[in-house]
Amino acid sequence: MPPQFDDDVSRQPKPGPDGDGERLEQLLPLVYAELREIAERQLRGEHAAITLQPTALAHEAYLRLAGADLAWAGRTHVLAVAARTMRRILVDEARRRHADRRGGGAVQVTMPSLAAPQADPIDVLAVDVALARLAERDERKARMVELRHFAGLTLEEIAEVLDVSIATVHRDLRFATSWLAAELSAE
């Protein structure tokens, strides 16, 4: 069964006596460079109001993962949970800034595969809402978008994590990306 992810990693079950906390300590240093790349990808094209740097985002995700006590299933599991955690951090930051300014200053990011060809920044909150709508419609497609566009996993890695064929990943991602682009352009 593929690993299950949750927006709030602290709600995941505690590991048993098999030493999952130690496993994470072993895995995180091996994937730290990839965590930093994910952070850079997520912060690329950010609105100037964002104060987080890639290293700070990677460290914040690292700290949250270290305290999560998940049953870690390997590199792709760590990267997938880290990408979702980083997205949650950015959404929380955007909500905080949005609340501070009451309607202004929402965090902007560029998602080249979802944005218009001119790669205008996309509102993180709008992406989060659109992904939530997609998840209501089809959770697997929403997870694929997260794994591909936020974690940067390959089609093969996504297929492994979700236990589906590569053809299914390709087909579902094509649909999900088009659907999200339409949702985001409508806003």
Rounded Rg: 16 Å
Percent of sequence in beta strands: under 5%
Number of domains: 1
Poorly predicted runs: 1-19, 115-119
Name the strands of the widest sheet in spatial order: 1-2
Largest sheet: 2 strands, antiparallel
Overall shape: it is globular
The end-to-end distance, rounded to whole angstroms, is 37 Å
Which structural class is indicated by helix and strand composition?
A: mainly alpha
The proportion of residues forming helix, as a percent range, comes to 55-70%
Order of helices and strands: HHHEEHHHH
Total beta strands: 2
Number of helices: 7
Estimate the mean pLDDT confidence: 75
Short description:
By secondary structure, this protein is mostly helical.
Describe the structure.
The protein is an all-alpha fold. The protein has one domain (9-186). Helix content is 64%, strand content 2%. It contains seven helices and two strands, in the order H-H-H-E-E-H-H-H-H. Strands 1-2 form a two-stranded antiparallel sheet. It is globular, with a radius of gyration of 16 Å. Residues 1-19 and 115-119 have low confidence and may be disordered.
